[in-house]
Amino acid sequence: MERKPVWYSIIRYSPDDIKGEIINVGLIMHILGEEKKIKYYIIKENSPKLKSIYYSALDQELYKSYREVLDFHLSNSMKNICLNIDSSNVISPYIDNFLEELYKAYKGKALYLSKPQFGLTKNVENLFNAIFDTYIGKKYLDLAEKITKSTKSYIKDIFENRKLLYTKVLPNVEINPINDLQSITLKIDFKFKNGHNNYIQTLPKVDEINKQKDWIFRNDYLFNHLKIHENAKINLLYRSSEVENDVNLKGILSHYLKNENITAIDANNNEKIVQLCDNIEEHAEDIANLA
User: Average pLDDT of 109-124?
Assistant: First the structure.
């Protein structure tokens, strides 16, 4: 497996220059290559790691506000050509020196970045976890969040940011595959209409084999029903960063790549996601016309 080049910075918090308290609170990694992307995690305001610098509830709210601003910039950075921080243009992650520019933009702030460091890795996830453990501490990583949001939550956030959700895209759609049995429904993540019905189903991370089989069986039936009865277009959204380290997900994705009626879209490929959103924005009908 080819090693990927990455840049990473430690996120640090120093609320009081006089006291000089500095705490490592997160990590940002900029992954280079054909599909540039970022991976980051910032500990929350209720983390025990921060209790030593809180002297009042106001201190906790202050950190929360700093965290939310940086989180907003990072979560939206892949959706915009560039960011604007304090009237300074910060180049997007599509540019190799993104992290260096972000480091400069946050220099001198209470929440800031360490000087970016370079690395090469065959496994981005393992390197991220190892660096996080070294500088912040593994026990402060909220495993419930699994560092990044689920693919469904990720694309939902993008649709909301582009003001497509509930205007041109309908989430959590229930399908009745058997007309005489209205109590039986199958769910699909998103729907929009572009001359004909389009559906988007996201590939979830499912640990148990039985649940994986159940997901495949249900969706095989669902996709076949939608194609036959609606001549619908099916889009399967997945993350290559999840699939590459998961044999079971690779198998599921491979199963659907053989189906010519299904279009697979890598959510890590930001150009493809932008194209999807642009297509919906320009050509999809208003949600009132969804049938």
Answer: 92
